[in-house]
Design brief:
This protein has 305 residues and is mostly beta strands. It is 10% helix and 36% strand.
Length: 305
Amino acid sequence: MGLPHGIPIADSHARCASARRPAGPPATANVIGPARPPTRRPRRYRRGAGEPAAAALIVAWLALLAACNAGGAAGPAVAPPPQPTPSPAADPELLLPDLVTTRPDQLYIEEPQGGGGRELRFSTTLVNRGIGPLSLLGSFDEASGDASAIQVIKRRDGGEVERFAGKLSLDPAHGHYHLNDFFIFELWTYGPRGSLDRLVATTGKITFCLLDVTRAEPAPTSVAEAPEFIECSWRQQGISQGWSETYDATLPGQQLDLTGVPDGRYAVRARIDPDGLLAETNKRNNSLIFYVEITGTEVRLLDRP
């Protein structure tokens, strides 16, 4: 309940304290006039014009006492918690991408020159099956040599929406700019029904260059007529809807270190955008699992666990 009109919030501490103190003058105050006999009855109010004002005062005083007893001294109002930001995928006006990966076309075991154990090498294909492009613009930082990646999302009305999507860095092995922490590949043991059991090897989060290379097959419902993203620069990267890009198995980063991993059957899990920075129509299909059998320097892609 709020305070009666005319009582400042700043005075509520003093008023609450005084409301809790016993009525009457302090012990050190001088009482003027003769003392009343203890047997004298309290004065009664007579019915008349003054009764409504007195009643209103009593009601206001009781309201103040209730407020003080319920919450103590009044403090600053507490703002309600902010509402969560709606997911971009929930806005039908946004033309969002939908990134998926496929089972590798190239898969083999390699023993690096100079020893050091086996490596499982694999190709990676990235497809945009959404209704809009994955479009990234870079904002370059001369101090670090990196660029902040901004995802530009088109709207049906011709407008655009922007959001932070990570960092673009120069990849020394590839010689151009990549989007950081874009893919991660993992090797797992698995249970009887194919459920992941124990992680035995991982690439960690690796970088990726985003380009329009080939039209996706089979073609999705929305396909850009011509490639828009043709260069791996910090200024702009992306994949148009209906287009794909494949990293060959021979490229740096396309391998899992099998040092200490015995022969056997394993699950390989590939995950796109593991940090969830990109806005898409569907994030549930960003992970793909396929099963392999490793024997010495041979690897076989399994149809099922």
